[in-house]
Write a structure and sequence with these properties.
about 250 residues; alpha+beta; Alpha-D-Glucose-1,6-Bisphosphate, Chain A, domain 4; ten-stranded mixed beta sheet; two-stranded antiparallel ribbon; 4 helices; about 20% helix; globular; disordered N terminus
Amino acid sequence: MRTVLTALQTLALLLTTVSLHAEVPTDDENWEKALDSDGIEVHTRNLENSRIDAFRAETVLNAPLEAVMAVMANPESCMEWVHQCSHAQKLEGGSFRDRYAYSINDMPWPVSDRDYVLHITTHKGESRDHIIIEMESVDGRVGKKDGYVRMPESSTVYEFFREGRNRTRIVWYQHAAPGGSLPNWLVNQLSTDIPYESLLTLNDVVQKERYQGHELAFDEQGRLVDVIPPEEDATPASKPTPDAEGG
């Protein structure tokens, strides 16, 4: 049900959208610490030719890498931890490594709800203990619908690092341009609130029973190809093999 929210809450909803036309930097330079609380650090950074700051958020989740990836592989988990994600579904076609999803953010009256189609790629980083997910908004696949505004620009990269047996470090980069005549200082303020609230919730979600006991499956080239639930057995081609080129 739509409700009338404060201006700050409205901005928070606008910043939760995810797409990838304005590339987000993932290097270590020029970030300024904006928040450090509950084990979550958020840094922001000015970008050339953009009025909106990018953010980099980091924390250590109390769950193994496999459980975290089980959450990320489930498109409906968006509704569990991403702020104001009201609908999410996997689209037909694709694979774990290269797939598409459709999501809706519920906006407060009188703002129209936002929807977007994501192109999601997942691959191994420097080792099997380092996984990278990149998200890009795309046109097509789902026709534009009356009553929804198709979200235009943002860039999101997630990096996951195994930190021992039952802990995972996540680094979340994002740059979003919500559009409209919104005061930049208010939008930039929410660039710290959004990742903080989302990561706080994610730490609870990754500990849920339904995400435990999964395994990461790699093909013969050492590429990450799936996250296997405990009731399923990996096929011989998906069983872990020595690292090879590819990710």
